[in-house]
Description:
single chain, 304 residues, alpha+beta, six-stranded mixed β-sheet, four-stranded antiparallel β-sheet, 9 helices, 31% helix, globular
Amino acid sequence: MTCATLYDVPAPAKLNLFLHVVGRRADGYHLLQTAFRFIDLADMLHFERRADGVIERAYDLPGVAPHEDLVVRAASALQQATGTRHGVRIGLVKRIPQGGGLGGGSSDAATTLVALNRLWNTGLSRRELMALALPLGADVPVFVFGRSAFAQGVGEDLNAVDLPEAGYLVAQPDASVPTAAIFGAPDLTRDTKPVKIADFLAKPCARFGKNDLEPVAFARYPEIFRCSQWLEAQLAAPVRMSGSGACLFVEFATQARALLAQQEITATMRVAANSTRCGTAPEFRLIQACAGLAEHPLWHWIAS
């Protein structure tokens, strides 16, 4: 007998260790090269199976109507593809910031596909779930893929890569960035020279390539640029933006070192807030030390 409920199902955030825009298709979709890594910052979802076929969203998501919600759309896509008569009541606890470039909505959608495939006993393979994931968004397939990946195309061409242990300081400036506006900007670089997987693996991850979306986001959101410059000065380490922003990250050899950096930054901000002699620190909505994950927490939930 299969279970009727799944609680505290994680949907981890991702980082783009680099992100190159290498072209644009005739249909307007951008051709990318990027390296995805999951981190242990995660949303949590809850699923209660229903027998009446209804997909119920039991949470509020400000600014996102139910028919636009990737979680609801993912559940509907799986329901339609398999013909199941089951429905579901879905709860969501958001911990990944919206508009942060960490893939929170995409990860929630992928976790919904994987979890409901289990809850509804629909039995789709990883490849079949990835095919359902792609129309939901370019980042959704990698979360179903479940491994650190070198990605090409519009997000569908994924190759697993083994990455060394790492910790990350993740910081969200006081900004939320709409992805479509960044990709639609006329000043976006769209002709970066393609690289090979071997090129990426031959260098330290945090020092490889660039994020082609950074200049566009920095120009339109000066607070992101200011936060990036401030963090780099405080930590004497490269700072990179993830995805289309607004979140920034710094890579460290271990999570313990990332946690120390978090403590240093928060202490500096506290001193600056209480002193007129230390300068003004920028505002952040989130500063958190995270561990890099070798694989998605739900990797073993799918029969590959």
